Amino acid sequence: MSTHRELANAIRALSMDAVQQANSGHPGAPMGMADIAEVLWRDFLKHNPADPQWLDRDRFVLSNGHASMLLYSLLYLTGYPLKLEDIKHFRQLGSHTAGHPEHAPALGIETTTGPLGQGFANAVGMALAEKMLAAQFNRPGFEVIDHHTYVFMGDGCMMEGISHEAASLAGTWGLGKLIAFYDDNSISIDGKVRGWFRDDTPKRFEGYHWHVIPNVDGQSADAVTAAIEAARAETARPTLICCKTIIGFGAPNKQDTKAAHGEALGPDEVAAARKMLGWNYPPFEIPEDLRRQWDCRAKGAEIQGRWSELFARYRVAFPELAVELQRRMRGDLPTNWRAGVEEALNLPTPKPQATRQSSQAVINALEPFVPEFIGGSADLTGSNNTQGKDAKAITPEDFTGHYIHYGVREFGMTAVMNGITLHGGFIPFGGTFLVFSDYARNAVRLGALMGIRVIHVYTHDSIGLGEDGPTHQPIEHLASLRAMPHLSLWRPCDTAETAVAWVAAIERRDGPTALALTRQALPQQPRSAEQKAAIRRGGYTLIDCEGVPQVIVIATGSEVALAAEAVRALNSGGHRVRLVSMPSTDLFDSQDAAYRDAVLPPVVTRRVAVEAAASQSWWRYVGSAGRVIGLDRFGASGKASDLFPHFGFSADNVARTIRELF
Ligand SMILES: Cc1ncc(C[n+]2csc(CCOP(=O)(O)OP(=O)(O)O)c2C)c(N)n1
Ligand SMILES: [Mg+2]
Known about the structure:
Low-confidence stretches: none
Distance between the termini: 86 Å
Strand content: 5-15%
Number of helices: 27
Helix content: 40-55%
Mean pLDDT: 98
Number of strands: 20
Bound molecules: thiamine diphosphate, magnesium ion
Structural class: alpha/beta
């Protein structure tokens, strides 16, 4: 039997060798946290490396994602499908061992981390999902959902503001199965953190109602073991284990300095570290007997086997619940989903309605069909219209609800939603004002990068929100969200388009969707069945003319109605103008060329786009001969009905602009 230290040194050796070979990466945190990781992964973590996606596994998140070699070492050593070859190709193009961990559930990488603090918030989302799923599916004697979420975080995660949002939520909810390890090594990139980070972190987390275990020697396997046992014994509160560690532990000349943080140690220091650690093996070589002791597959199979027996009995006792749980964890939609879609697409639309209210109606229509819905808002429930009529909110005492009051925490909400989706079993959506999507933006981006289903409900989508003024009026947000790869954005013009947007968002399994919705009422546009079906293509002809159009007008959301007024007037005066409604540019762009050219015939070069937002999105559609009626300045405080004409958003101005092109 090897000592804990010998086993941990396998992580240190792999990490410093891989970083040295790549001549790039971060050896310090993996070497400093190796002792903690060894104890957690070998003695406590409930996992089966042979089945990385077993639904009741413990979740592990490396929030200090720069320590990626720590995770890769653990995955390789414990027997996940990650190979030694992958580790030798650390940070090389096309390898599984990217610079920072990239979501790969089949390999055991639970989430993409690197932007500090967000992994921690993802972990809070995962722990919340576990608790909600357990509340919905466990039955007395059948704890089929019963796992912990462990997260490693460094000084950087602690300094980031999002750690406040996420920790505050976790403490409020009492997520007793969330266990965080703080790598308290007093070093960040610029050096000793004392000059820029003196928080009393234990007191801070006690203030959030966490169970805090301070002053743990992170280099002592015994101390770490005792701390994890104490953390697991606490079931009512999340636990923070504050571990004092030495960055780069084992590298004699660089440990405990910023030099160990983010660059290869260099051949001399790597050799010196081998000596200090007593590691007498060549690079990338782990002696067989250490490999054997690290391999967690046999133990994992046994633990999973016990769960499978429990689940088999659950399946007999509660056959419907068992099938439903498995469906939800796969992310498949319910078998009667089409019936829900029919309801949503055929909502009565008698009168003008704000699209945020249309969205509410769609949520109400879909909610009985989609039990995995978990709605929410960053304290704007009444404005975002995100709470379904039968969706009761979760509370610290009752996690069976389908709605989350996230409080005023847009970034935290968004990263928590990512965590919920990553855990599985839910389709989260959360609301705020479009202008505050900026606060949440990097979490939206990570959701897009990971390709996960999360729905962002952004209301008050233009100057149309009126009196709250330019601080609240989004301008560049639509363009900037459209610039984000793999995010699907919808800006519907009425109830019919809003319903299609929601259905598309829910059916889009491999990426997030943002819905930009109005505060103010919009008229309902008449459509043929064919036009209705074409909404799903992202852009379609809403009003056509006889023959080849002289001018094509493209509009979105609240500007469709005023463009329609202008186009109808011109056409009845004998002109030939086509109106294209373009609620989703990304979906339109993904259509085949024949469809796109049918909607926007290349011969028609006289084009006008109308959107009460930054013009940047539209030049590629209207071309250099075209016009954009947009808003390339900040808005103003005033009534929406005054602001729209003031900034040129009127049927008259649209008609005038079209006429200029005849
Ligand atoms: C949001 C964000 N800002 C900045 C960075 C760049 N960065 C990577 S590591 C790091 C310092 C982190 O310090 P710490 O968490 O203490 O890590 P340690 O040096 O102890 O490994 C910074 C600033 C980042 N990855 N994410
Ligand atoms: Mg540090």
